[in-house]
Amino acid sequence: MGSRPVFGEELRAELGTPGRSRRLGSSPRSRVWRVELPGTTAVVKQLVDGPEADDRYAREVTALRLAARASSPVAPALLAVDPAARVLVLEHLAHRPPAEDWSVDYAAALARLHATAGPADAGALPRWKGPSRADIHSFLALAATLRVTVAAGVADELDALVERLGRAPGHALLHGDPCPGNDLHTPTGTRFVDFEQAALGSGLMELAYLRIGFPTCWCVTAAPAPMLERAENAYLAAWHTETGTRIRDAELRDGLADACAGWLLRGDALVERARREGADHLARVPRRDWKWGTATARQRLVHRLGVVARTTAGHPELAGVGGLSRAMRQQALARWPALRPVPTKRP
């Protein structure tokens, strides 16, 4: 079952009879094939039965249609759909190994993607959701387990952070999981695929992925400072070109600090999606470590603590959070001295 792509009569009438097909790798939530169609090669993706499958399908279709507005392509073209079977037929894109400075083109493409939606699209997709107060409780409990004193005022800073993230302005089209592997590096630029988590919100929540190390991804990397600066500048320039507006220095600084601190709080960002929403993963870290992709949970945690300590330096509303993150990182490294930094290069 599932060895051949689902390609119903309506799709055949619209696109022709499919020829040879080859199953491609995908997440457990979908089946994907490369298919020969009359005059072209396409990708057929079917979302399988499972929790929220209809919602994920609707998000992907909507996001791809919004992304098609981009001045230059940022996603594969959506050729046809079969909603009853949760099938999408997509343009096939030629992928090549990323260049050393892949994050620069990635960031510019991310800005162009974000710019395809605006206030008129409110309600087309769910709003992006940040951390909760339950995440704050777990994070402060982890600090206690590491025997780090939480200074007065830190809990209030974290409460205010969660509130700010919950009402962060913006109607950008957010990919939802803009990770290495969901970016295709084609001869004509970076394109994004797999929009099942797409949402609307502030683009800074995803620009922060470059700093915090791709928090929802198997592939954690830490960009060297000069490359990070180039990538963030590429994002800002592309955003200005597409929207005619500039992101002010203070907005960028404070928005990235909030976003990075928010990703640090989320224990679910230590495990793959199938294991999220249930266990307190921050509480598990002191007891055992586990590998996911390019890094272990403790490596991810220590990396994020360091990023937040640096990013919040001089931030009037997160000074206590920054100090706590610095102290937790020092204590974690003392407890686990063999921990290595996360990779600087993607596989």
Mean pLDDT: 95
> In percent, how helical is the residue content?
40-55%
Structural class: alpha+beta
Secondary-structure element order, N to C: HEEEHEEHHHEEEEHHHHHEEHH
SS field, number of helical segments = 12
The rounded distance between the terminal residues' Cα atoms is 32 Å
Give a count of the beta strands, DSSP E runs of length 2 or more: 11
> Biggest sheet: strands side by side, in what order?
1-2-3-5-4
Radius of gyration: 21 Å
Which geometry do the CA atoms define? globular
Main β sheet profile: 5 strands, antiparallel
Give the strand content.
5-15%
> Unreliable stretches, pLDDT < 50, 5 or more residues?
none
Give your account of this protein's structure.
The strands form four sheets. This protein has a five-stranded antiparallel sheet, with helices on both faces. The protein is an alpha+beta fold and 347 residues long. It has twelve helices and eleven strands. 41% of the residues lie in helices and 14% in strands. The chain is globular, with a radius of gyration of 21 Å. The model has no long low-confidence stretch (mean pLDDT 95).
Summarize the helices and strands and which ones pair or pack.
Layout: H1 9-15, E1 21-24, E2 30-37, E3 40-47, H2 53-67, E4 78-82, E5 87-91, H3 102-114, H4 133-145, H5 154-166, E6 172-174, E7 183-186, E8 189-192, E9 199-201, H6 204-207, H7 209-212, H8 225-243, H9 249-265, H10 281-284, E10 291-292, E11 295-296, H11 297-311, H12 319-335
Helix pairs in contact: 3-8, 5-9, 9-11, 11-12
